[in-house]
Amino acid sequence: MRSLPLPLALTARLSPVVVLACAGWALSSGPNTETQDTASKDTRKTESTSPTAPSTSAVSKTYAAAPPPCTSVATKTITSLVPAAKTAGKEIASTDSKLRRTCSWNALKGYDYRWLDVSFEITDSDEAAQSSYKDRLKEKSGGGAVPGLGNQAYSVVNLTTEDKQQTREGVVIAQVSNALVVITYNGSDFESKKAPGTDEINKGAIKAAKEAVAALQNGQKS
After folding, report:
1. What angle do CA 58, 100, 187 make, to 5 degrees?
2. Which CATH number goes with the domain that contains 138?
3. I want to staple 92 with a disulfide (CB 3.0 to 4.6 A). Which of 37, 102, 118, 221 is the partner?
4. pLDDT per residue over 136-188, tens digit each?
5. Considering the entire predicted model, what is its pTM?
6. Is 35 in the same domain as 88?
């Protein structure tokens, strides 16, 4: 109960009737304006600092999940790039298939061997995808930009030799909003021990990348 103002308390000792009248006036008039303003300010401050207040800085994502990788490249493209391969491809197991999916095709036709991987990786934001893209370029230096593919894309071809057997591998990395598309395409000739030409591998990887990026963009978005 709120303490009565000092004058009212003194009056209470002199006249009970006056006390009742004053008390009735105090109850009917309610709290003073200054108290109301202070309470209102405290309430607004509490609401603004509450940890459960809804955030207005949520990051929107263009892509929420990786598309099916084994259907992201046309059958005729698979037949051309990986002769004798099963066109259905084989999806590689992933710890989180919603965010990361890869399909692989490989085959040996005569002495000619080809391998193609198509991967999709979904990140939390465009900025995260850009950061990952830059990190991957540091690992695959020596290539060049691929114009008109996603937000930005890069292609590089490298030759390796092991036990006199050459293998040439092309990698294309494309950033598309908050997603990364990564293509790996390589080949060897086990009879001549030579690798296919740089132009063949590079063009093949870029062709697969363009189809994979189109599949991502035409797929379901968040």
Report:
1. 140
2. 3.40.1000
3. 102
4. 998 887 899 999 999 999 999 999 999 999 999 999 999 999 999 999 999 99
5. 0.73
6. no
The position carrying tokens 């968040």 is 222
One domain for residues 96 and 156: yes
Radius of gyration of the chain (CA): 35
For tokens 């198509």, the residue is: 118
- How many domains are there within the chain? 2
Quote the Cα angle for 26-32-33, to 5°. 155
Whether residue 64 is contained in a domain is answered as no
Pairing of the two strands 90-92 and 179-189:
unpaired
Give me the domain span that covers residue 20.
6-47
Residue bearing the bigger pLDDT, 55 or 197 = 197
Average pLDDT over residues 120-135: 96
Q: What percent of the chain has pLDDT over 90?
A: 66
As to burial, measured by CB atoms within 10 angstroms (0-12 exposed, 13-18 middle, 19+ buried), residue 57 is exposed
Nearest CA among 113, 125, 118, 47 for reference residue 84: 113
The two tokens of residue 189 are 């000739």
CA distance 222 to 3: 60
